[in-house]
Amino acid sequence: MTPRVFHLVGPPGSGKRTVGLKLSALTGAVLLDNHLFNDAVFRPYGADGLRPIPEEIHALAAQVRKLGLEAARLAPRDVSQIFTSYLTNRPSGPAALQLVRDLAAARGAQYLPVWLACPLDELERRLPLPERLKRAKLRDPAILRAALETSGLLAAPPDAIGIDTSALAPADAARLIAEHSGALF
Fold first, then answer.
1. Tens digits of per-residue pLDDT, 79-108?
2. How far apart, in Å, are the Cα atoms of 91 and each of 11, 19, 52, 64, 85?
3. Which CATH superfamily is domain 4-180 in?
4. Angstrom distance (rounded) from CA 114 to CA 122
5. Residue 75 carries which DSSP code?
6. How is the chain split into domains, by residue range?
């Protein structure tokens, strides 16, 4: 069977990890959420989800992510993967998208980009939830608004499916993604 590389993209608080956990349970794909890579650097730095993270810390996280992508590329053929990303309109956004797409191609995997949308007021409501603190995720609505205003969200490529996570429960979103990919058949 052809492995799948699911790529869940959305702004902070859109439910990438939550949907990814449900998708992993449904398909058996390994969840490699962005904080798996980021936290290796963010935690030693003392990230708390409230103060901005300096660019040099982001650069270190990018090095860890690069190593994680290389390990993912070497995964056995029967391993499917789920990546999560907040991809911006900055040059790093399209480049990061291409890295995951290239990883899928190198593995001979089916690449499935999924764009998660959620209204700003719902994103802001979700940010202070306790589970975000445990993973040092962004929790300040002002920082979220500033990031979305200055960097935006990369537009979905033509082959992406779009899901509004404010309109679907995470399990329903995961089922929709799995059905779209043929992973349930």
1. 999 999 999 999 999 999 999 999 999 999
2. 16, 26, 20, 19, 14
3. P-loop containing nucleotide triphosphate hydrolases (3.40.50.300)
4. 19
5. S
6. 4-180
Query: pTM (2 decimals)?
Result: 0.94
b/e per residue, 122-131, with b = 16+ CB within 10 A? bbbebbeeee
Closest residue by Cα to residue 165 from 123, 111, 130, 112: 123
Backbone angles phi, psi at 158, to 5 degrees: -60, -25
The CA distances from residue 170 to 17, 24, 91, in Å, are 10, 12, 30
| pLDDT over 90 percentage in the chain | 85
Side chain identity at residue 167, one-letter code = A
Q: Within a 13 Å sphere around the CA of 182, how many CA atoms are in the beta-carbon half?
A: 8
What's the CA gap between 128 and 125, in Å, rounded? Answer: 7
Look at the chain and count its residues.
Answer: 185
| Euclidean distance between CA atoms 62 and 20, whole angstroms | 21
CA distance 140 to 150: 16
Q: How far is CA 14 from CA 52, 80, 83, 173, in A?
A: 19, 22, 14, 12
